[in-house]
Amino acid sequence: MTEITSLTNKGVLTLSLNRPQKMNALTRQMYGQLAQSLNSAASDADIRAVVITSEGEHFTAGNDITDFMENPPTDESSEVAKFLGAILEFPKPLLAAVKGNAVGIGTTMLLHCDVVVASPTAKFSMPFASLGLVPEGGSSLLFPALVGYQRAIKIFMTGESFDATQAFEMGLIAAIDVDALHGVSKIAQQIANQPPRAIMNTKALLKARNHDSLAAVMKAEFELFALALQSDEAMEAFMKFMAKKG
Ligand code: COA
Question: What's the CATH code, domain 4-181?
């Protein structure tokens, strides 16, 4: 069964993370499929907006830790780098519906989305330092820009999570809705009905200010992240998680 399902309805492509038994932890294959779907949606005139959502109770528990240990991404040709590149460059409206846990890249990918709706159950966290890693996905630039240095670094350094109300107050999400997917799909449809060129130009203008510096930061983050993945600190944290699984 595919771990990324896709459905197109009236110009809105919905991509759903579908590995609920592993809390939608993301594998290389899943990143690869997401990247491919986004890249083909970018050049498909019939797709006007994309929604990322999830099956089950959670958005995603972040990168699959077994995959991190067995197949650490080391360069730009890795599937995770392709996914991050695809969301950085995606020219059309990208929306997300979040419920339950959104760990690691589950939160950092939202910083690239244009509209995020979360359910009251949503719980966001970026525990990179706790795992012996460093912020990724441009979050070391985008998150402090959004919430300020003090709040950002406290969240990065403690690994603490925050809820939907806090995420709304920070500006990480646009709305809270008990049915986040329904809520965001309505907005996606509204956007899909707008003149498409004007929508893409609007996004390009709003993203332009950060684009080049963001691309440079993402490259630097990726290099540090790849090194950190091979560190004793990371290995110890991963072993701890594996041991907890019993
Ligand atoms: N990678 C691989 N498997 C994961 C996973 C991950 N990132 N997150 C959860 N899973 C799996 C668990 O191993 C478990 O599978 P199992 O039943 O076959 O053992 C299943 O998903 C459910 O997770 P579980 O840990 O039992 O749920 P929980 O409610 O007790 O805890 C979390 C939820 C999110 C706190 C916990 O799963 C967790 O810390 N996950 C790791 C998050 C993380 O560090 N991600 C990387 C960020 S860079």
Answer: 3.90.226.10
